Amino acid sequence: MMKNPISVTLYEDLRLIDIGMELFIEIHFANGKTVQSRSSMIGYQLERFILIEYPNKGFSEAYQYMLANAEIVVRAITNSGFKDIIAFKSTILSVVNHPIKMLCLSVPKAITKKKVRDQPRVNIEQAVFVIHNESKVSATMVDFSFSGCLLTLDANAVSIEQGEQMHVAISINTDLSGILTGSAVKIQHVDGKLHVGIKFSDEHPELTDNIFSYCLVNSTKKS
């Protein structure tokens, strides 16, 4: 039985990361280069090490040799009803090649938890295209949630009425690209800009979930 209160707290926090859960990782190499990728939890032995799947984003051979002792930031979104975020900083101890390729990490001193229920909408600054009637215009997505988003665009670029259907083409990366469909629920003119609040339809739940997770995880870097 663990008597150290720090160990008990750390153990309870680690239990929030289910085996196989997707992890968002950020590796900081000694030469200043930072690489973001995804991984998944394999397991851990408290006070000794954590094992995660080798990142799915390929590294050049030179960087593979630089993984040992590199700093790594690990973030995950829990399976709780509120999709809480947990994050920790660690060090890559070694690369394990058998039975599968894994990263062996040091156990962090602490894990940070953030309640998403306190932040149902996340800030984002992402270039998108608005497709409305026969027009396709550039816009900026400034916040995002499961149910909708807020866009800003040139007030003279397009005419939008409340309740009209709109399509938003977004491409964050090769894995997060697609078209979100919704309707304009709030329209404001501010300093020559059109601010349009969009409520999403239920056509693309997986895409909205993945984008929200991406935005949420990246928002913790600014906290």
From TrEMBL:
InterPro entries: PilZ_domain (IPR009875), Split_barrel_FMN-bd (IPR012349), T3SS_YcgR_PilZN (IPR009926). Keywords: Bacterial flagellum, c-di-GMP, Cell projection, Cilium, Flagellum, Nucleotide-binding. It comes from the Bacteria. Gene3D superfamilies: Electron Transport, Fmn-binding Protein, Chain A, predicted glycosyltransferase like domains. It holds the Pfam family PilZNR. Transmembrane segments: none annotated. GO terms for molecular function: cyclic-di-GMP binding. The lineage of its organism: Bacteria, Pseudomonadati, Pseudomonadota, Gammaproteobacteria, Alteromonadales. Residues 116-209 form the PilZ domain. This is Flagellar brake protein. Residues 19-108 form the Type III secretion system flagellar brake protein YcgR PilZN domain. SUPFAM superfamilies: PilZ domain-like (SSF141371).
